[in-house]
Write a structure and sequence with these properties.
about 400 residues, mainly alpha, two-stranded antiparallel sheet, 15 helices, 2 strands
Length: about 400
């Protein structure tokens, strides 16, 4: 099952359809006001220039791990690495003359190594052409083979989107999402996902079959999206991976194919609205000891691509960095990597495959999906710092 990140989209978890209503009823501040304590706390937590070395060092360790262990770079993992290139190549080009030479060199070298891994993945995908079992997955890979197209549609981080985002107290968040144990059980219950992961994959694969609409950053083109796919986006779940994947489908339509599912205006409105809900859910996860780091990082990565700066919180990133092992890969174990360090090794039976059936890698000591998300997240945070700390 694809989770990108989770490219196996999960778009409906019915037990939480009441969340939207509760969020509407629980209002802390009026839109346009950034003077509340909650909003001030979010603003004070935006990454500062002094943190860029920590972020880069961690990202460099991830990329070094990928270079040494390419066999783990499957469809999920590759999407995270693709987003590293998307986040950093364009901003590097724009800011090359303004940033310190040492910083520029480090990012350039990181991107060279990222390209090596990305090219390896694409080479391996080409080798699967005659394997019918990989047909749907190959169609999905077409959506992230060209990182030069995506920056045309990416939006600069916009701190003013926080004005339209409600900030809740931990007590209010619990009233919305319920007790942590119940919330976690619902997030983890894949049997309740509607549409099914297979149906969601089919929608994304159909998107991969469409050609890229040339000139679509000027003229609007409509995606060829079946009604069942549109229904999943419009009436999917309001929490968990289901919520992030509703954004993901709309994002892939625009960024990778240059088309809109409903209309440019409606697609953007939906993505912004879903990301506002995802931000509150991320706050709920953070308030409960970051016990769902994979989901939380996915929320940050996906909504960051459409400019939601409020997700780029240094305190959150600092907690995620505790999950990095000495080899560079990340564990999903919130107790940290210490208990897994002894078993970190490739196993004799490990081999490259386009779609791994488990995210567990390195003898169970790391999680490939979480590592990919961490790479994409760090590149987003670095992009935020570059956008806001040098002339533009």
């Amino acid at each position: 099952m694809i989770t990108v990140i989770m490219l196996k989209s999960i778009t409906s978890l019915r037990p939480f359809t009441i969340i939207s209503l509760l969020m509407c009823l629980t209002v802390i501040i009026s839109n346009g006001d950034l003077t509340s304590h909650g909003h001030k706390k979010v603003i004070s937590n935006f990454p500062k220039e002094k943190y860029i070395d920590d972020y880069l060092t961690s990202l460099e360790k991830i990329i070094e791990f990928c270079v040494k262990h390419k066999l783990y770079i499957d469809l999920n993992f590759e999407f995270g690495l693709f987003l590293v290139a998307v986040n950093l190549k364009n901003i590097l080009e724009v800011k090359a003359d303004d940033m310190p030479l040492t910083l520029k060199y480090r990012i350039e070298q990181l991107l060279v190594k990222t390209d090596v891994v990305n090219e390896y993945f694409r080479y391996m995908v080409r080798k699967t052409k005659k394997n019918i079992a990989y047909d749907e997955d190959r169609k999905i890979t077409r959506l992230f083979f060209n990182e030069t197209i995506w920056p045309k549609y990416m939006q600069r981080f916009n701190t003013m989107l926080l004005k339209k985002t409600k900030v809740y107290t931990p007590e209010q968040l619990e009233r919305i999402y319920g007790k942590w144990e119940n919330y976690e059980a619902n997030v983890d219950d894949f049997e309740k996902y509607k549409p099914s992961p297979d149906d969601s994959d089919a929608c994304i694969a159909l998107l991969g079959e469409q050609p890229t609409a040339e000139g679509s950053h000027i003229v609007e083109f409509r995606c060829k999206a079946p009604q069942e796919c549109r229904d999943g986006i419009e009436r999917g779940s309001d929490y968990g991976y289901g919520l992030t994947h509703r954004v993901l489908y709309l994002l892939l339509s625009r960024f990778a194919r240059g088309c809109s599912v409903f209309s440019l205006k409606e697609d953007k409105s939906k993505m912004d609205r879903y990301c506002k809900k995802a931000f509150n859910e991320a706050q709920f996860i953070a308030a409960n000891g970051y016990k769902k780091p994979d989901l939380m990082m996915e929320q940050i990565v996906i909504c960051g691509l459409i400019g939601h700066a409020q997700f780029i919180q240094h305190e959150w990133i600092k907690n995620f960095l505790k999950l990095q092992t000495h080899l560079g890969c990340f564990t999903e174990n919130v107790d940290g990597p210490a208990s897994n360090e002894m078993r970190l090794k490739e196993l004799p039976d490990d081999a490259w495959t386009l779609q791994r059936f488990t995210s567990s890698i390195m003898n169970g000591g790391c999680n490939g999906h979480t590592t990919a998300l961490a790479a994409a997240l760090l590149s987003s945070a670095i992009r935020y710092i570059l956008e806001n700390n040098y002339s533009y």
